[in-house]
Amino acid sequence: MFYHLFTPLSDGGDVFNLFRYITFRAGGAFMTSLLFAFTFGRPIINWLRRIQKKGQPIRDDGPERHIIEKAGTPTMGGVMILSALLISTLLWARLDNGFIWIVAMVTFGFGAIGFADDFLKVRHFSVKGVPGKLRLGLGFLIALVAAIWATAIQPEDLRNTIALPLLKESVIQAGVFYAPFAMMVIAGSANAVNLTDGLDGLAIMPVMIAAGSLGMIAYVVGRTDFTEYLQLHYVPGTGEIAIFCSALIGAGLGFLWYNAPPAMVFMGDTGSLALGGALGAIAVAAKHEIVWAIIGGLFVLEVVSVIVQVVSFKLTGKRVFRMAPIHHHFEQKGWQEPTIVIRFWIIAVILALVGLATLKLR
Fold this sequence. Notes:
Layout (H helix, E strand, L loop, with lengths): L1 H5 L15 H31 L11 H6 L8 H15 L5 H27 L7 H22 L7 E3 L7 E3 L4 H19 L7 H18 L2 H7 L10 H19 L8 H18 L3 H7 L1 H20 L9 H7 L4 H21 L5
Antiparallel strand pairs: 1-2
Helix pairs in contact: 2-4, 2-10, 4-5, 4-10, 4-11, 5-6, 5-11, 6-7, 6-11, 7-11, 7-13, 8-10, 8-11, 8-15, 11-12, 12-15
């Protein structure tokens, strides 16, 4: 909004000219979402406490200490994150940019699914929310729309292709299989972050790390000078996504203030599905789906741990992990929650650096 309001007033040498720069607007989006979360975080938490009364239902098949330590904590804190993110993005991003609307659509589409799921859980005080098949079906539908939309506005030579890291400008021509692939990236990301959100502060920091990394990638691939130097695929318009990512980081930091152990609020499916879907959509828009699997390797690990556990138990009757997802395995081994959380943050940082290194190692 600010871009459209102020850039027409600029003569090229005044303060209004700053609004032409993505970096300036990204900083503004970060500060806006951070201040929103700090200002309205407590009132939102108090409101969630009033309407939920008993807080988030705790699964009885999870770690026993959660039933005691986390009982009564309100959920749906994703409302705080998404509100800050939406307002900041609308204020600071160019609203004539298709990629911004794709990512926003995915974010708030998955957020709506998560909100409905959380609402049913707290209303009936049950761990059962929206039926799993319906939730997955709606998620795949949103992801499919986003995949087709992104393909339509990407350069013609990049449509329906999968870029390969380390191999310069090499791509795989996926043809009609690209849309299902992109759909799996987006929907899979949403559910991977959802699985990771099991301990205080565990999911939100890796999400911010990933957002920062993908925001840098989106900014780079949206500039011809950087793409020529790094031998990357140029995708015009993706630079605006950096503003969305900056807003996400600001909103995430504000949320972490209240979600740090012991958490005053959980993000719930409202936040985890939305943020995961957003990251997947950004990777698809910037043509860095495989690099996203590296940057988001922590989320991949969480999903793989669940798959391995289920497959092993069905085939052999034995469990590989004491409990899945894998962060619960370490809880059962006696690790303290802050230890698990911080070590997983470290892993997320390392994987993000490895993913970013692929931009140069080509």
